[in-house]
# Entry
Amino acid sequence: MTKIWAYIGLAYALSWPLLSRSGASHSGVSQPDRRRRFLWFIAMTLLGWIVLILHAHWPVQIRFWLIAPAMLPAWVISGAFSKDQGIRSLLRSLVHPPDWRWPAVALLSMPAFLLVPSVLVHMFGVPFQWPAPQNSAWMYIASGIVRFGYSLLFAAVLEEPGWRGLLLERLQQRFSPLAASLLVWLPWALWHAPLDFGGWVANSLILYLEIRVIFLIPLTILTTWIYNRSGHAILAAAIFHASLNTFPLILPFVQKTYVLIFVWAGYVVVKDKMWRRLEAA
# Structure
């Protein structure tokens, strides 16, 4: 438990000052490989730089200083080839998940959840909530890809190694997946407070309670389910995290159907008997 509390303390102490200023078991452990780490670092830095340029500036302007923040997720991802065995073990599943089917499930499950019930309800006359209009279908697709890439690299990849890869992993050694999910949910929700009340998402107390308390609980349970089903792959959890942030903003859906997230979470709890510890399930 000491390491759990140490992680939570460091997560708050190291990130909250930055957020406030912003205003608005694993598969086999790889061997250290400096060349591969360097290549992954360069490739992910370039990808992150492109995503930042397209996300922050339109029409596109080449801003070389954006290379600096792009290095942060690149450094995390390339840590899968670190010379430190503990870091390699933690981050290995970011580049080599045990089962590639579950990252695909993580990507497609949220669009299916939003669209299928919404289409059914829309057939009875309930209107869609439409995303912001774009100049063309290609612009709409490109905007969605950039939004997803931004959320994946600059939110999910930076958060999930800690929340799921470290904190949830250690909590599940002592508690059931359901109890561990609730123990992850509280510090995860509170961690967002500087961003939320700084005008990012939940910029009022009512909205904060709705997003971070009411709806984040089933979303945390579903992320645990994805993570465990994927063989403890951080990549699957990160993709699902990014999909939660992105698809409600880029897909048309009936907003009232979002309450079905509780049904989905309840189903996976019962199906996987998440109230039992993993070794007893």
In short: The first helix runs from residue 2 to 22. The chain has a mean pLDDT of 88.
